[in-house]
Amino acid sequence: MVYAIDGRERWLVHNYMKAGETDFDTVDRDACIRTILGVGADFKYDIISKEDWFGRRLIANRFRERSAFIAGDAAHIWVPYAGYGMNAGIADAMNLSWLLAAYLNGWAPLAIPDAYEAERWPITSQVSRFAMSHAEAEIRRRGAVPDEIEEAGPRGERARQDVGRLAYEINVQQYACAGLNFGTYYDRSPIIAYDGSEHPPYTMDSYTPSTVPGCRTPHLWCEDGRSLYDAMGPEFTLLRFDSTLDVTALETAARNKAVPLRVLDLEGKEAGYEGRLVLSRPDQHIAWRGNRLPDDPAALIDRIRGAAHPKLAR
Hints:
The protein is an alpha+beta fold and 314 residues long.
């Protein structure tokens, strides 16, 4: 496996050890490099640095200890693979940042950061298993090149088609991982008002946009050409798909607790949205939805700001 560093003269070469190989020093590194690059003995190269490492999947058993929080590689590691670890780290930081800001800005109690581990731990555990199983499948693929791959005739053609199909399927999932980026959801959060609906399943490369609470707020384009994510406020945004619905009670309840809330009317844009009212959080995940306001808007505001004191579970 070869990656371009500067596109001219610096390259990163990965060589996987075969099953049963446990001693790095028994590997003929020069032969491996020449085989991977497809060059002969007359080709000259310089090794700037090298590193031997084992692929592991490790997740901290907790992400918080009193006033200390961990995120990114400090909280979870797995095989470096298509930037999944970076994406997870950014998601950790986004999740934790708005929770801490809510407390520091005075509209959420000290309990709200408890939601960080409750939301992010299950997701990183799931993503880590996706990444590791995918990496293992890729290693098996690279170690199983059929002997007839270069043969002329039907056998060789069939082998090349099978190898090409498998390479395509694995690499499309790896580099176009819409499911991991947009399909993840929070299904056990203390600050989300669930309605009993089942979250849609997702794979590495596919997902179904959904307004089930906990899912990512589905994207749409506004009438003025802006992205919904640009049109929403920096804090909570109530998406209203029917401007005749009176949401004053929710606005009042939010204002009474100093919870920043913006109402965004999206008349005629309800395709793909279930619920005429959808409450989106600062991290663009859905906190609540409904066809009308709840009977107790103040209780909903307390729920989303972490003041309902639910029992945490993981």
